[in-house]
Sequence to fold (362 residues):
Amino acid sequence: MDQLVFGLPIEGMVHEEVLACLELFGEKVIPEFDKDRTHLTDHYPRQGQAEVRDVLEAAARHRVADRPPPWCAGAAALMLISLNYHATDQSMSPIALAVEAEARGFHGLYLPEHTHIPASRETPAPNGEAELPEMYWRTFDPFVMLAAVAQATTGLVVGTSVALPAQHDPVTLAKQVATLDVISGGRVVLGVGLGWNREEMATHGVVFASRREQVAEAVQLMRALWTEHEASFTGRHYRLEPSWAYPKPVQAGGPPVVLGGAAGPKLFAAIAEWGDGWMPIGAGGLARTLPDLRLAVEGAGRDPDALRIAPMAVEPTLEKLDYYGTLGITELGCDSRPHPGTRSWRRSTRTPAFLDHAFADG
Fold:
């Protein structure tokens, strides 16, 4: 029987894949590994300790002790470096990864959400794969897992990339997110998406054509519960009678809500109306699309400089890293999806050690 790490099976192949993925982040992102740390011994069977040590020691060996979380100084922005991790029950534990990543200064850890994947597979795979990768139906509940991550860390941002509010009861989801924000001490970023899998949404009673409006209403309702002693809401999809709900989130106004999705007038109008930022997949084309987003936000009477621009699953080249900073990107979610056989994994094994450049001394 396989030994377990946080209830997850240890598979040497999987740990080697995580190692290979994090090695791509270069040798100057993460401070030197403290070999006296006891939590590895506490939580890892002997056969797993060396692998986990290598995963993060190989990623980097230097960081100035008082330096803030990973960043790269572009010409126009301070860009935080986080991990976007499509964790599954067959991959390295996100709890273990989070503990070691925080010890080395990464800013945050973001997890995706899928409740299930109907076997009919009527909706095409979102990234153009001929077959939907197995990792999509092996994802954890992000809120349960992020609560565990929050308890195991002290400063790491815990976020979703993305959660699917239309597939939740918004009153319950508001309670979950508020509780997570309390547990974490105000470290939650709620990335939200409209959803792409029609049959998954249908299971939850979501009408695909109206999901945009439904997500907007869900966020409005949640914010009311987060900020008002006696909250109420009336919309087309949801109604909340005057109600009390505590605890309130630690963050004033509730956690930032960052909308994911492809660039376009409808998405940008939604961000301008109620979003705290944009969480696209990848950073391609942002030089062309970000001006349109800024115009939409300005047209709504809001400050575009206050937006969070946080592309996830990014596989940048060394040459593009500084360029991303000039675009106004505030946070970069590095692709950390060690799932063999997927197109994203094959691409990631060719990604340069771009973070060497981000953490060069001086």
